């Protein structure tokens, strides 16, 4: 039997915060694309993008 999940729960962003550095990590599908494309990216694709949004565009 499938669990009924509300829209709010579906839209929830799950993040992990590194307590030592305070850095926030998000799953690849929840990271906004810096060049404005509506895509779901993989870890490999994310690693290939420059960190600077101007450079990525």
UniProtKB/TrEMBL annotation:
This is Uncharacterized protein. It comes from marine sediment metagenome.
């Amino acid at each position: 039997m499938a669990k009924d999940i509300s829209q709010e729960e579906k839209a929830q962003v799950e993040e992990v915060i590194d307590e030592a550095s305070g850095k926030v990590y998000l799953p690849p599908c929840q990271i906004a694309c810096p060049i404005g494309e509506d895509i779901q990216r993989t870890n490999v694709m994310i690693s290939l993008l420059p960190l600077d949004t101007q450079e990525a565009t």
